[in-house]
Amino acid sequence: MSHVGATAHDTDTDPPPTTGRWPVLAVLCLAQFMLVLDVTVVNVALPSIGAELGLGRDALTWVVTAYALSFGGLMLLGGRIADLVGRRTAFLTGLLVFTAASLTGGLAGSAGVLIGGRIAQGVGAALMSPSALALVTTTFHGPARNRALGVWAAVGGTGSAFGVLVGGLLTDGPGWEWIFFVNVPVGAAVFAGVLALVPADAGDAHAAGAARAAGGRPR
């Protein structure tokens, strides 16, 4: 899931990249790593989740697949939303949804809440991933863009492999809940990094202007 379609913005019309473009890439790579890791991180924890929550095989299957289905199935829509409201706005909105859903998953006491949290995680990820890719392609230009895309794809691709390892360590350590709770501080760090490093694009400005107009506030 590390390879997704970029949004339809014409990158030639975007402002030139800032001097802090490599820190931007680092923050976006961390986010993509987290999203891909969450595809497999629950696998090792399934026996513990099933025993503690009393879940059967069918429910545990949905714990795994609900995230992947909503993530993969909604990415095209997520890219379109990024076109409409702005890449940074879409990314941050998706991050808030993903982080809140992760907290919900860690606190879940029933199959319905846990599966609902996984679906919401996928919705957030579907907003974040295409927006992040679009931010990479508009932050870098020329040969640097190819290098940045290579790094972004490679880091995201390692998430699946590390998911099993991280899931095992957290399940054997603090408990299965932490395969979800760990996303909260990571999400907060990514949110702060994007706010500090990524400038608003035209779509973000248009969305903010529409919100001000709807609220009756002058620009």
Describe this protein's structure:
The chain has a single domain, classed as Growth Hormone, Chain: A, CATH 1.20.1250. It has 10 helices and no strands. It has helices at 21-40, 46-53, 57-73, 75-85, 87-107, 111-139, 143-172, 178-181, 183-197, 202-214. The longest helix has 30 residues, at 143-172. The protein is elongated and about 50 Å long. The protein starts with 20 loop residues before the first helix and ends in a 5-residue tail after the last helix. Mean pLDDT is 87; it is low at 2-18 and 210-219.
- Rg over CA atoms: 18 Å
The biggest beta sheet is recorded as: none
Percent helix range: over 70%
Provide the succession of SSEs.
HHHHHHHHHH
Distance between the termini: 39 Å
Oligomer: single chain
Examine the secondary-structure arrangement and name the CATH architecture: Up-down Bundle
Q: What's the CATH C level?
A: Mainly Alpha
Q: What's the helix count?
A: 10
Shape: elongated
**CATH superfamily label:** MFS general substrate transporter like domains
Structural domain tally? 1
Number of strands: 0
Structural class: mainly alpha
Mean pLDDT: 87
Q: In what range is the share of β-strand residues?
A: under 5%
Low-confidence stretches: 2-18, 210-219
